[in-house]
Specification:
By secondary structure, the protein is an all-beta fold. Helix content is about 0%, strand content about 55%. Strands 2, 4, 5, 6, 9, 10 and 11 form a seven-stranded mixed beta sheet that branches. Strand 4 (about 35-40) and strand 5 form a beta hairpin.
């Protein structure tokens, strides 16, 4: 099982970024997959999840600004982020859980700063 996140970078407040997570080694299309983030000195928090049926859920701090989506053919999870704020600065991880085991990507750094 492997999750490879990419797309992070430095962006100004109010800007946008799209993160991608390529999935390997498991049946991607049948699993709920999600994005977490961890800022320095803070606990890791759930940002967004998407089920195999395409239902989504978001953390309160990103609702209305972030959109999670998936491409089951290409086996890629996306996170489109708009109206970015300095508080969105964190390492973003893709993740899924199967049979009590958790799998994490390596993370991609997002820095929102002027």
């Amino acid at each position: 099982v492997q999750l490879q996140a990419s797309g992070g970078g430095l962006v100004q407040p109010g800007g946008s970024l799209r993160l991608s997570c390529a999935a390997y080694g498991f049946n991607f299309k049948i699993n709920t997959v999600d994005w977490y983030r961890q800022a320095p000195g803070k606990q890791r928090e759930m940002v967004a999840l998407i089920t195999s049926a395409g239902s989504t859920n978001y953390g309160d701090s990103v609702k209305g600004r972030f959109t999670v989506s998936r491409d089951n053919v290409q086996r890629i999870l996306y996170l489109q982020m708009h109206s970015l704020k300095p508080d969105d600065t964190a390492v973003y991880y893709c993740h899924f859980e199967r049979s009590g085991n958790e799998y994490w990507g390596q993370g991609t750094q997002v820095t929102v700063s002027s």
